[in-house]
Amino acid sequence: MNVPLVLTQFLDRAVFLYGKKPAIICDDRVFTYEEINGRVNRLSHGLKDLGVKKGDRVAYLAPNTVEMFEGFYGVFQLGAIMVPLNTRLKPEDYLFILNHSESKVLFVDQDLYPLIVPIKDKLTSVEAIVVQYKEKDTPELDYDAWLANQSELPFEREELDENDVCSLLYTSGTTGNPKGVMLTHRNNYLHALSAQHHLRVYDNDVLLHILPMFHVNGWGSPFYYTGNGATQVFLKKATADSIWGELLKHKVTVMHMAPTVLNALMQYYEKNVPEVEQDVRVVIAGSAPPPAFVTRVEEELGWEFIQVYGMTELSPFVSVSTVHSHLENLPKKDRYRLKAKAGYPQIGVEVKVVNDMGEEVSHDGQEIGEVVVKSHGVMLGYWRNEEETMKTIKNGYLHTGDMGTIDEYGYIDIVDRKKDIIISGGENISSIEVEGVLYEHPAILEAAVVAVPHEKWGETPHAFVVTKEGQSLTEQEVIAFSREKLAHFKAVTGVTFVEELPKTASGKIQKVHLRNDYWKKSGNESPTRFVN
Fold first, then answer.
1. By CB distance 3.0 to 4.6 Å, which of 142, 169, 231, 522 could disulfide with 134?
2. Is 0.90 surpassed by the pTM of this model?
């Protein structure tokens, strides 16, 4: 008899093999996997008492905490669907998502509860709100008291099929309403097995949860680190000093984060030079980093840099940039260049780069096409949005909207989003390439490059720059630096200095806001090809 691939198996395995191990750390609280399993059973019993049934949606608005973690397994035991909410949205966004998903119960952290208050009376499906870390004056169910009243006995689970939806993740739309990505138990289960292999996850690992767990479940980490019995440390607010503090205190060995967060950690290191005894590897996704950035991480910090690539609709990542053993004899600069790429396809994943005719581009690292993916991780579709589903999944391949190349070794390099390619005088310019050059400047902390209108060339690259503390730069110095390093048509033609760049909760720079604001101020409309 076949055993369905369902996510509850990962915690079952952890309890069986690592039950007595101190495994989950949140603030000053430490739980074994057996203790977490007891809390998960209490949660499932409580949800059943609230009327939650198989297929119902249960929403979570919370930072990275033990309460958020146990939510995944507690919800899944009922066959219900987890709806993790981005913690940086506006009340109107939560109103749309909660009503669109028809969520039945909402768990919310006390710090985020004020975002729900303005919309409470407009929620059409939410029957109960449970507040974690509740303050005395908050008029909702108190999570701790409610959980304590439930049974710790094993919960009689609903029968699950591996193709049942487990998570509904809403992508942040810049135009129109967000879309709900339906991921199944099979999607996340097989992704977890592949990730365990490629990221070398073992029971002696200590994971620091930096990436928010609403963000594709923190890249699926609650599943594969649990399944292999790793210790997991939860951090409500991820700042450079708090990350370093947890890293040193708990001897953290692995962290997942966006490049901007890693950049902040490097700035902290330069000032404080903390001494790290253990081996550390960092898993990075987002804009492709310049090879010089990888060099600094590996040679200054002594950490292993692993770039991955993916998106919510793919469960999420489908490629990894570790260097194959037969390529270890390449010159160091070439190895770092490989590490900076999106990488090669993971096991069970087919990734192609195709031109407008659907034909694969040459494996020369030069010809650009769109990245398309066929894999076990491709989403079931968008929740109640068949039209967008059909636009995204064609002939079995999910079209990512990312433009890239593929080299002779099979490594994919993302050169830009379709909407971020700059077309200047008929020439295509990768904003990522230009940003990579700017990051080489010793006074630049962060940079984002977007297309801006130009009377002669149609559009040209414009840089938004954050300088390092104590450093000063002029627009002409930045322009001159880019002209020294790039073909002149790729060089920036203007610079705006800013205190900070707009970012998502995971730390990804939101270039769409920079671009749209600039075009509006200039009296132009952003080109239609930029629309998300």
1. 142
2. no
